[in-house]
């Protein structure tokens, strides 16, 4: 993780304010050489100067760092094996550097006594969607259910449909984007279409055309990080309001107009096929209304 110092102050004080990490953990991280300023290891008392480059190695998260938090959840479905959550805009799915609190995992630990424990840092989490992508995702309540749901995902049997607003008018009614995705070699926070990336396949169908944008439905065959956002940018139709991909006008601070609308899978114990849908959130509808008037 790289940051630019915005003011002159002690390094340890700046990192405590920026990162959702305790002072003692920050101090140990600096002491162990995991923080560099302009490429050099320094002490915690180092006095930052404006525009100093701060490079921070990722923290090792321990399960004891993750605490239950009373955060409301929109629970679409629950049985003994699985929970379906309609995730709101802005909620990070699991703890990571800078996001130890207010995540979906913090909320799940508060509301549910039983979650799969295959990954102690991400209890229950079978798959993820971006913080500013809204909609449905499944959560496993036990390890057996987790393994079965994860296998379905791997075998491309899980049904996942998204709705997005993208810039530009797509003339074809349907299409398929098959382009491998990997970590951007220039910006490690981003993904990109790369020859040596992993297979990624996205299908789309036009739902409605506006003068400067198109509303589409997307079906995923694979689940690469930022797949829809990268693929739509790749064909020059980036997702509307995306702050990372596309370099187009940002309408507001609610993030990309991308909603996980449909989720279908087989119930892990009974094998019964279950399918759920969710309505477009207010943040999406607000931007769509603006787009219609452009």
What can you tell me about this protein's structure?
The chain has 6 helices and 15 strands. The mean pLDDT is 92. The longest helix has 12 residues, at 143-154. It is globular and about 60 Å long. β5 (75-78) and β6 form a beta hairpin. It has 2 domains: 2-56, RNA-binding S4 domain (Structural Genomics Hypothetical 15.5 Kd Protein In mrcA-pckA Intergenic Region, Chain A); 63-292, Pseudouridine synthase, CATH 3.30.2350. The relative contact order is 0.13. The chain has 294 residues and is an alpha+beta fold. The protein has helices at residues 11-18, 23-31, 104-111, 143-154, 227-234, 282-292, and strands at residues 2-4, 35-37, 40-41, 53-56, 75-78, 82-87, 134-140, 159-167, 174-178, 181-183, 191-193, 201-209, 213-220, 258-266, 273-277. Strands 5, 6, 7, 8, 9, 12, 13, 14 and 15 form a 9-stranded mixed β-sheet that branches.
Q: Terminal Cα separation, in Å?
A: 38 Å
Listing every helix as H and every strand as E from the N terminus to the C terminus, the arrangement reads: EHHEEEEEHEHEEEEEEHEEH
Q: What kind of assembly state do the chains in view correspond to? A: single chain
Percentage of residues in helical conformation:
10-25%
Q: Can you give the mean pLDDT?
A: 92
CATH fold description of the largest domain: Pseudouridine synthase
Decide which structural class fits the backbone. Answer: alpha+beta
